[in-house]
Q: What sequence folds into this?
């Protein structure tokens, strides 16, 4: 089947991260963002694509910081309430009945019950006429121990990360599973050694 090019996103299962921000008055905002990716290994940058008119966008420009909250499928029912248009003066923690978690490095709080939190300082905004790419520098990365394996990696069977696959009229929420195959980074290199391995020590 040949499809319209803009439907490309329907073939890339996307994470659902909840971006929390505050404005100058301290009013708190939450919005789900799926156009979300780390920028290469081992940088500490994260990129989100944002439409121009978002309280999230305005808050990031105002405060130069934000939190990427990664949750499990138990937050699926929080997606629509936080994605609904609300006036900037509405506290979306109250509106969506979400509890806040104090951040360690930045002022903006995160979301309690997430399996991981990325506290970010604004690195750069790439402005385009119809969208912006927001680059954040992760200044504190934290994960809830109860979703980690003994080696510190994410136990996806426990965390059940919230994902979605789009279709022509909406989003199908889903999660990910391990398939029982692990390959070291070094496997990509002719000598079997990962040139970045020192960074991970
Ligand atoms: C699953 C999901 C993913 C979304 N991803 C994005 C995204 O990556 N970028 C974006 O600009 N809007 C995205 N949106 C739309 C915003 O979440 C929505 O417009 C929200 O109301 C923005 O809130 P704000 O104005 O408080 O920032 C997404 C919505 C949903 C439901």
A:
């Amino acid at each position: 089947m040949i499809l319209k090019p803009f439907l490309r996103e329907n073939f890339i299962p996307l994470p659902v991260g909840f971006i929390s921000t505050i404005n100058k008055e301290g009013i708190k905002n939450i919005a789900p963002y799926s156009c979300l990716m780390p920028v290469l290994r081992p940088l500490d940058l994260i990129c989100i694509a944002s439409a121009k008119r978002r309280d999230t966008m305005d808050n990031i420009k105002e405060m130069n910081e934000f939190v990427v909250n990664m949750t499990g499928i138990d937050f699926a029912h929080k997606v629509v309430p936080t994605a609904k248009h609300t006036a900037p003066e509405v506290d979306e923690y109250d509106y969506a009945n979400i509890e806040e978690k104090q951040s360690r490095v930045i002022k903006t709080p995160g979301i309690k019950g997430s399996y991981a939190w990325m506290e970010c300082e604004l690195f750069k905004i790439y402005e385009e006429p119809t969208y912006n790419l927001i680059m954040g520098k992760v200044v504190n990365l934290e994960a809830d121990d109860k979703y980690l394996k003994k080696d510190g990696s994410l136990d996806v069977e426990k965390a059940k990360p919230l994902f979605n696959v789009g279709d022509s009229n909406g989003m199908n929420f889903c999660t990910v599973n391990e398939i029982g195959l692990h390959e070291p980074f070094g496997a990509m290199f002719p000598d079997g050694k990962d040139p970045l391995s020192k960074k991970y020590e």
